[in-house]
Amino acid sequence: MPGAPHDSSAEKRFDTHAARPAYLQYDRSEMPVTAMAADYVPGHVTRPHQHPHAQLVHAVQGVMVVSTAEGQWIVPPTRGMWMPGDVVHWIRMVGRVQMRTAYIRPDAAPDLPTRCTVLGISPLLRELILAAIDIPPQYAPDSRDGRLARLLLDEVKLVPTLPLHLPRPADAGLRQICDEILDSPDTGLTLADWGARLGVDPKTIQRRFARETGMTFGRWRQQARLLAALQRLAAGNKVVDVALDMGYGSPSAFATMFRRQFGMPPSAFFK
Prior knowledge:
This protein has helices spanning about 25, 125-130, 145-155, 170-185, 190-200, 200-215, 215-235, 240-245, 250-260, 265-270, and strands spanning about 35-40, 55-70, 70-75, 80-85, 90-105, 115-120, 160, 165. It is an alpha+beta fold. The protein has 2 domains: about 10-160, Jelly Rolls (Sandwich); about 170-270, Orthogonal Bundle (Arc Repressor Mutant, subunit A). The longest helix has 18 residues, at about 215-235. Pfam families: AraC_binding, HTH_18. Keywords: Activator, DNA-binding, Repressor, Transcription, Transcription regulation. InterPro entries: AraC-bd (IPR003313), Homeodomain-like_sf (IPR009057), HTH_AraC (IPR018060), HTH_AraC-typ_CS (IPR018062), RmlC-like_jellyroll (IPR014710), RmlC_Cupin_sf (IPR011051), Tscrpt_reg_AraC-type_HTH (IPR020449). GO terms for molecular function: DNA-binding transcription factor activity; sequence-specific DNA binding. This is AraC-like DNA-binding protein.
């Protein structure tokens, strides 16, 4: 797909959607909120698709890497992904994933985010999502199911957003840099190295990065490393191994940067 984030590990593992996917009865419902459950094997990748309704995607188990033309989002357990309607996306599963998705009619949540974002999932919101799985696709608005759906919408408005996004530049040269960093997060190539390779002044690369991603080159690379580290930690790799694989000089240096970005040490992130 043109402009799609590079994901070499996803090749040849796309699923084949049925002629009538199960989610069609949910993401086109007239009800304000419907929900469904789906489980996936490690490495599974959905094909690029979109839904007319907004989605709140939550993994009870496993990690999801959600991609759009604008970038990637890492969604660990205890977090969720808010996605407005009609956004073309695909999801790669890291580990065995138990996905629980609430589909939300656009006019039922006009004050919720208009862009993709990762959300913290409170204990109450988690239980509301799980309870919504048992709600039929059709229900009376003034019923218990209807009240539960309204409470779910109220709770989504209160949870925090999280910095688990890696933006995707449109410039072809910048995409080449990004793709190589995503393939080898520990690369030590500098802006000067990239400038020499692409025949572009390093200051020009820096300006383009800031304009197209909202981040400096160094900040983008740091975010790429941290999000790659999250995936490896979720797969059960040791902190010391992940730190060295990501190019950090020591586990303590990695832990310091991790805490600075996410507000907690790596050992506490998945608890």
